[in-house]
Amino acid sequence: MDTTIDDAAPDGTIDWISLTGRAGSAGHDLVGWLMWDPDAIGRFEALGVPNGAGWLLSWRIAPLGNVSPAAAAAATYSVNAAVIEFVMGLYSDVTDVDAICAVRDESVVSGLGSIAPGLLDQIAPLADDLWRGVDSVHHGGRPMFAAFRARPRPPRDERALSAWLAVNCLRELRGDNHWALCAAADHDDVEVGLLHSVMVDVDEYGSEEWIARSRGNDDAAIRRGWDRLEAKGLATDAAVNAAGRRFRVDLERRTDELTTPAWQAVGDTTTRALCVAVEAHHDALLARIDATAGPRWMPAARQRATERHR
Fold first, then answer.
1. Do the beta carbons of residue 31 and residue 167 sit within 8 Å?
2. pLDDT digits 0-9 by tens, 50-91
3. How many domains, the chain?
């Protein structure tokens, strides 16, 4: 991966939209591998969850607390509500949010130490600046971000984990902002999955439908999704058309715009330092996902370079 991305505007000022997009990509890399980490799954199983099933979603849903599956599905947005309800049922009677978050934290430190040696030491000094960005944002309309921000923070002698948790909060902030824009455009969970195919190499995925199907949607749901997109002029004959592609690329830009104030609060020096540190390990982190989940999972970490850093 190219780690020399130019995020300066023509007049020499900081191109904050570009830098925010770059930071968003770094966040996906830093967090994504955890969703399929076999050590984390083993620890989750030890809490009483059969085979550690549902870890992919459980550690993200659990901080929402004792909410209904419908509310959790609304917050996660792109995952089929039936899948959310099933996963919540797996852990709700055998463990609690504190235990699940403890599994997450232990897995982050041990996992990154193995996958990306030295990265934890690089991000640890950035923790205070990253939390400043997290704390600069109001919670309104940002349920996932708010839930993670409200969790207890590590003590000062766990600076690397603290930095990771702050980045994860900023990643969830970006996600909440993205979903707000999708909701404003009246795109449902299936539509957003279909539209995300614009951001990846469809030849590698094999179909524009793979991402939407990976969120638990069946043939009938996919057909309804295409019908809705076609009615909006964003698809033709069950394929995203030119208007749909323009819409999806612009959606990414607008998501970055909404998320920029938080990264401005972090500061350009720390934001760039985070990006450089994580980008150096992009291939290793993605290889970990390939080895544990498969070559199509975590599509946000696989966006084409031209879209990852415009």
1. yes
2. 999 999 999 999 999 999 999 999 999 999 999 999 999 999
3. 1
H or E stretch at 262: helix 242-266
Question: What predicted TM-score, i.e. pTM, was given to this entire model?
Answer: 0.93
Instruction: Catalogue the long-range contacts made by 146-154 (C-beta closer than 8 Å, 24 or more residues apart).
Output: 147/63, 147/64, 147/65, 147/75, 147/172, 148/63, 148/172, 150/63, 151/63, 151/101, 154/105
CA-to-CA distance for 211 and 205, rounded, in angstroms?
8
The reply to whether 1 falls in a domain is no
Per-residue model confidence as pLDDT tens digits over 216-265: 999 999 999 999 999 999 999 999 999 999 999 999 999 999 999 999 99
The residue among 212, 121, 134 whose CA lies nearest residue 168 is 134
Range of the domain at 225: 28-308
| 291 domain-assigned | yes
Contact 21, 260 (CB under 8 A): no
What number of other Cβ atoms are within 10 A of residue 254's Cβ?
16
Q: Three-state SS for 21?
A: helix
Look at residue 282 and tell me if it is in a domain. yes
Which amino acid belongs to residue 166?
A
**Which residues, other chains included, contact 303 with Cβ-Cβ below 8 Å and sequence gap of 6+?**
25, 199, 200
CB 62, CB 115: distance < 8 Å: no
Is residue 219 in some structural domain?
A: yes
What is the per-residue pLDDT across 125-157, written as a single tens digit (0 to 9) for each?
999 999 999 999 999 999 999 999 999 999 999
